[in-house]
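Below is how a single chain appears once it has passed through the pipeline. First comes the sequence as given, then the structure the pipeline wrote out for it. We keep one example in the README because the format questions we get most often are answered faster by looking than by reading.
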Amino acid sequence: MSHRRPAVMLSAMAVLISRTVNAFAQDSQEVLGQALQAYTGSDAGSTGLTGGISAWGLLGGMLFSGVGFVAFVYGKKNAELRPMLIGIALLVYPYLVRGTLMIYLVGAGLSAALYFFRE
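Resulting structure:
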């Protein structure tokens, strides 16, 4: 009889852990849905996990953020303020702009400013 008691305790602990993990997952999903709704203005269920951001928008954000990183490092190494500031702008703006077309337009404009307004 004493051998069954640890097995019952282990199964009870497994059930408790399972319920805790499920509750945490549901809470996390609810918080994520609220954050996506606040950012995109739409329901998370209709936009998926990306919150309405297209694959091309993600690609553009990564591309222009990479250009911004290179510009920032260049400006820092050469002690030039303008490439550093434009690099920071290129790194930050994809988080603030929603539309795919706007990501490309703003990125192209900032990249052109980086090229034409060099010292």
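Residues 55-116 form one domain.

See the next section for the split statistics.
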